[in-house]
Design a protein that fits this description.
single chain, alpha/beta, three-stranded mixed beta sheet, 14 strands, 22% strand
Amino acid sequence: MSTTALATVVAKFAGLNIAGKAVVGLAVAAGAAGAAAGGPAIANHLTDPPQTGQVAVTQPVATRTGSPTATQDPTDAGPDAARMAAGSGPTDLPTAAMFGQQTAADAMAGGVDGEEIENAKLRGPISLRTRGRAVTTEDFEHLALEAAPELARVRAVAAGDGADAGSVRVLVVPAAQDDAGRLRFEQLLPSDETLARVAARLDECRVVGTRVLVEPPAYRGITIVARLRARPRVNPTRLQDDAMRAIYGYFHPITGGPESTGWPFGRPVQVGEVYSVLQGLRGTELVEDVRLFGADPITGQRGQVTQRLDLEPHALVFSYEHQLMVEGA
């Protein structure tokens, strides 16, 4: 729509005794339509003098798109408005294209992953039921994760007999970034700040007389030594890398186990599972030999070879210095 035609339409509506807001909406909509069609943006100065109740429309002024003005004559509004009308003012607004060309100087870091829908479905009913009170072990787990979303896993267990009778142990595992499944043992130790925050939250919600202990779980270190044979035309070095990634990924305290949700608490480690993981690789022709050892991730000391490694009831597994050999690698 041309400037002359738009001015004519607006002037006709201005002569009618209708509400000023309707005329303003029409003028703005028409100006936007003109800009979208490739024409100049139209800026109008609309006033509603209280003494007349009429809507006055000044002569529209064509400006560059993205640099609106509301004056009848740019030279009457100061030097900035005049420069804007000429398209060279310092107050020109940035365009979308300018923003699209920008890149971040540094990659984003920190934070936690967004909550998955399935987890929200489980958390919702618990939140409605507990209403901020910790009664069952499930309540303790939910409130601990609520207090420290940086945790990857939480397990609450009722303490046994003796001095700890009537207590609740809350075992917390922090989220950790691994390297092809490999973790450093210190990554599994929650910070003092996290432990204190969880303890403070649970102390507010516990039933009177209940003692709460917040701590990391026990970890059972394991070392696997295995020998494989690759299929014909399979790169032995690549198979070795795939086997290492598979073993570290399966025997992982946070993302491992049969369900890939973390090694189950207290689940024993058996040689048969190692055979299953390695034989399931596409490039494996045969798993020649597998040996399983208990290991201390702190001292590096290795135990005796065994077919089955039992864990404490609420302990997790920790992979330590696996050794996999592929013929020809």
